[in-house]
Amino acid sequence: MRKILYVIPYLQALGLEKDDLVQALGLSFTVSTFALAASLAHEGAFGGMDAMVSFAALVPALGGMWAGQWLRGRISAALFRRCFFLGLLGLGLHLALRHAL
Predict the structure, then answer these.
(1) What is the pTM of this model?
(2) What is the pLDDT along the chain (101 residues), one digit of tens a residue?
(3) Angle, alpha carbons 13-18-20 (nearest 5°)
(4) Could you tell me the residue ranges of all domains in the chain?
């Protein structure tokens, strides 16, 4: 998970429009998730109940994706960037606090 976080500031620094940024982030998250699943499956650490729970988690994830697309189409680019940076700040604080303890 930590490695994918490095791509977020990079993609934001490219100055992409909000739709292009979200598409690039979605693609990078998807590729990294499939790579993680393949690696875990190869090592025998992902199967059976873990796979079923992961597939069940797709339902709320797809719902959140739909809600995000709906919301993204209704807010300004400035508000989108502000929310994006606040999300990054929150994620950074979470990681810093988790590793500090």
Answers:
(1) 0.60
(2) 555 567 777 887 888 887 888 888 888 888 888 888 888 888 888 778 888 888 898 899 889 888 888 888 898 888 988 888 898 899 889 989 998 87
(3) 80
(4) 2-100
